[in-house]
Amino acid sequence: MKNYVVRKGDSLYSISKRYYNIGFLWRFLVLINLKWKNPHELNEGEELRVPFIGLFRN
C-alpha cells in the first residue's frame, strides 16, 4: 500500500493510469478510500491510499 498526496490537476483517472496503467480502475481507488463524500472533487494536498494489485505493481 502506498500513500499518495494529490497534486494540482490530479484526477482519480490520472492517478489510476499512473499506478495501474489502466485509468478505468479509478473506481477501485474509491472503494479503498471510502472517506470521500464526493470522489470527483480531489483537493490538492489530500492523501489517499493506493494499493498494489497483481501485475500492475510499480
From TrEMBL:
CDD domains: LysM. It holds the Pfam family LysM. This is LysM peptidoglycan-binding domain-containing protein. Residues 2-50 form the LysM domain. SUPFAM superfamilies: LysM domain. Gene3D superfamilies: LysM domain. It comes from Cytobacillus spartinae. It comes from the Bacteria.
